[in-house]
Specification:
By secondary structure, this protein is α/β, with parallel strands linked by helices. It has four domains: 25 residues; 224 residues, Trafficking protein particle complex subunit 3 (Muramoyl-pentapeptide Carboxypeptidase, domain 2), CATH 3.30.1380; 164 residues, 2-Layer Sandwich (Heat Shock Protein 90); 130 residues, Response regulator (Rossmann fold, 3-Layer(aba) Sandwich). Helices cover 50% and strands 16% of the residues. Strands 1-5-6-8-7 form a five-stranded mixed β-sheet. The radius of gyration is 39 Å and the shape is elongated. Bound molecules: adenosine-5'-diphosphate. The site of adenosine-5'-diphosphate has 22 residues, from helix 12 and helix 13.
């Protein structure tokens, strides 16, 4: 037992001795840990003693993962992991940016990290040392630097560390851990890489002098130079110093949180761009509104004129007016579409879609154009859709329509156009593949990519032979991509073109199918149907009245939302056609009021605002649907029949009159 106690005592003595020895080797250093010009020596000697004394108290206790000096914890990091190893990893990670850019990303990271560490270490030491003047504050930095293994600092005599714009520090790090890690890995750097040294020292000095500072390494042992030499100065002054001394090189000047500043600039620029885009969209929406309103009158009265007795010449004139109006409207639609699509604001509807019907309707629509140019058109479904699909039939039709319109436009008389469609069944979706082929003028190979850009045509001259704003394919490309597909072209000049695309269409679930079937109604023209037209423009009132009257509807007119609300309370209407912009009470407010009062008849918006946002506003105010102006006669009648049928059937089911 005695022997054991003796042994324990001996061990305790030995431990104490080891601790003392450790302190001696760590703290007591005979030589200076910094080299400075003579005039600064006194000041740095004080720092040397204070910092040396501080590090003499270092303790290692791996059982509790502790490396401490007084009550501060320190970390021991393998130097290469923070230099050569780190940069190699980052370069691999950012390989796609190219070697030089990737290295710069790594260096920027390290600069920012070490700059913050420099600032924080300095704050801590300034408090401990109770120093006030900037140079005394600086003095502990390089010594702390040496004790923590970063670098030995040699301040050169041309330095002028002052707390203003004139701050200039030139120094060397003969034993920089960063340069050593590259030399040890036997790799030669292509540019100076002692970036943590630059970041840390400039962070410490920035904190000491209270002005923003950065440091640039102008020669580096890792790239084969004799010394690792640095210049430190305020960021806006430093290039001046570097170029004065080193005219032949261009150096990267690290600025603290450079990336953050760049990110913020980018964020602001994006915000401004979005605001500008909003303005553009608003402008486009307003312009479209302004153009659509008179167009409404032109198209509407043409429709009505067509139903009167006309001689052949007059019929011809009407046809030309209608064609030109259609062209103008489709141009406005394209411009609007592009502005909505471009900024990712398209919301695709997901409703039950029958591709056969979509294509058949389209073919019927285009028949007159095929005939006019005596084009031989064929279309073929290579297989049937494997199940019921969901999609936005309007947008899908738009894709086909744009491609077929182009084929018609760019194929001479008696040419051939074909459309082929086939489906590929996947787990959750079906891929619709389509090929639109013509034997028209073709497209030069070097224009394949360009034609999908907006406002781009193969023939960009003013006296070109074909009309077109160059928006159709750009819209198609965006829509196809929205539907998670892609489009490409294969063509030979003077031989023809093939546009090949695919889109993904989700499969309908059985519950959704039940729902769709439930609301499916047989369309039949309802008898005794009363319609309230709410519209402030007398021309538009007249057109709507004439169209509906011709089809035996009973019509009442309200000149604004207020009148509409009053009329609805006095009489039962089967349907309301509601303009949006009106004096006294607009269409949205009127609809809200009608719904609030408990009336459930269908309300269809008649809007010259064809922007998606405007449409959504209408729907959320309680409208059932919208028709854009100029009102398409056929569409108007279809919708009126559909909604009045649905409404009447529901009323019957609920036992109402
Ligand atoms: P637009 O037809 O209004 O000019 P698009 O974006 O639809 O605009 O087409 C861009 C250009 O691509 C056309 O101007 C034309 O030069 C070329 N192009 C498109 N489709 C065809 C086609 N089927 N045959 C030949 N050229 C075509």
């Amino acid at each position: 037992m005695n022997r054991e106690k003796e042994l324990e005592k001996k061990i305790a003595e030995l431990e104490q001795e080891i601790a003392q020895l450790k302190r001696k080797t760590l703290g007591k250093v005979e030589e200076n840990t910094i080299q400075v010009p003579d005039k600064m020596k006194g000041l740095f000697q004080v720092a040397q003693n204070t910092v040396g004394e501080y590090f003499r108290k270092i303790e290692f206790d791996p059982r509790r993962a502790l490396i401490t000096v007084e009550d501060e914890r320190y970390l021991l990091v393998r130097a290469s992991s923070l230099s050569f190893g780190f940069l190699e990893s980052i370069q691999r990670l950012y390989e796609d940016r190219g070697q030089e850019k990737a290295l710069q990303i790594g260096l920027d990271f390290l600069f920012d990290i070490s700059h913050v560490i420099g600032i924080e270490d300095a704050k801590n030491f300034h408090e401990k040392m109770c120093v006030e003047d900037p140079l005394s504050k600086l003095s502990a930095g390089p010594i702390h630097f040496a004790y923590t293994g970063w670098a030995f600092v040699e301040i050169l005599k041309e330095s002028n560390p002052v707390p203003n714009d004139g701050f200039y520090l030139k120094y060397r790090h003969p034993y920089s851990f960063e340069a050593s890690s590259w030399i040890r890995a036997e790799k030669k750097a292509q540019k100076p890489i002692c970036i943590m040294n630059a970041g840390y020292s400039s962070g410490w000095c920035e904190q000491s002098f209270g002005i923003p500072l950065t440091a640039v390494e102008i020669s580096c042992r890792a790239q084969g130079d004799e010394h690792c030499t640095f210049v430190m100065a305020p960021p806006h002054k430093i290039s001046e110093y570097i170029h004065e001394k080193q005219s032949s090189h261009s150096y990267h000047i690290p600025v603290f949180l450079d990336r953050k500043v760049a990110e913020e600039k980018l964020k602001n620029a994006k915000k401004k761009l979005e605001q500008a885009n909003e303005m553009k969209s608003l402008f486009l929406a307003n312009m479209s509104h302004e153009i659509r309103t008179p167009m409404n009158a032109i198209v509407g009265f043409c429709d009505l004129l067509e139903d009167t007795k006309l001689n052949t010449e007059q019929q011809n004139y009407i046809r030309i007016i209608k064609n030109s109006s259609d062209l103008l409207i489709s141009l406005i639609d394209d411009l609007l579409d592009m502005s909505v699509i471009e900024f990712g604001k398209v919301k695709l509807r997901e409703v039950k879609v029958d591709i056969n019907t979509v294509v058949n309707q389209l073919v019927q629509l285009l028949q007159p154009q095929f005939q006019k140019k005596s084009l031989h058109f064929t279309y073929n479904f290579l297989n049937e859709a494997p199940c019921v699909l969901l999609g936005d039939h309007v947008r899908i039709q738009q894709i086909f329509l744009n491609l077929l319109n182009n084929a018609i436009k760019f194929t001479p008389k008696n040419g051939k156009i074909s459309l082929e469609i086939f489906f590929v069944d996947k787990d959750d979706f079906v891929v619709l593949n389509a090929v639109v082929e013509d034997n028209g003028i073709g497209i030069p190979t070097n224009k394949y990519k360009q034609i999908f850009e907006r406002f781009s045509r193969v023939d960009m001259s003013f006296n070109r032979s074909f009309d077109g704003a160059g928006l159709g394919l750009a819209i198609v490309k965006h829509l196809v991509e929205y539907m998670e597909g892609s489009i490409k072209v294969e063509s030979q000049e003077k031989k023809g073109s093939r546009f090949i695309f695919h889109i993904k269409l989700p499969k309908i679930s059985s519950r959704e199918e039940e729902f769709v079937n439930e609301i499916k109604q047989e369309l039949e023209v309802p008898e005794n149907t009363s319609v309230l037209i709410v519209e402030d423009d007398s021309t538009n009132q007249k057109i709507l009245e004439l169209i509906l009257h011709y089809h035996h509807y009973k019509i009442d007119i309200a000149n604004n939302g207020k009148e509409a609300v009053a009329k609805i309370q006095q009489k039962n209407y089967d349907i309301v056609l509601m303009d949006i912009s009106m004096p006294k009470m607009n269409g949205l407010d009127a609809t809200r009021e009608i719904r609030r009062l408990g009336f459930s008849m269908p309300i269809i918006a008649l809007t010259a605002h064809v922007m998606m946002k405007e449409r959504e506003k209408g729907l959320s105010a309680g409208m059932n649907d919208y028709i854009s102006k100029p009102v398409d006669k056929k569409l108007l009648l279809e919708k009126v029949i559909y909604y009045t049928n649905v409404h009447k059937t529901r009323d019957k089911e609920c036992g109402k009159k």
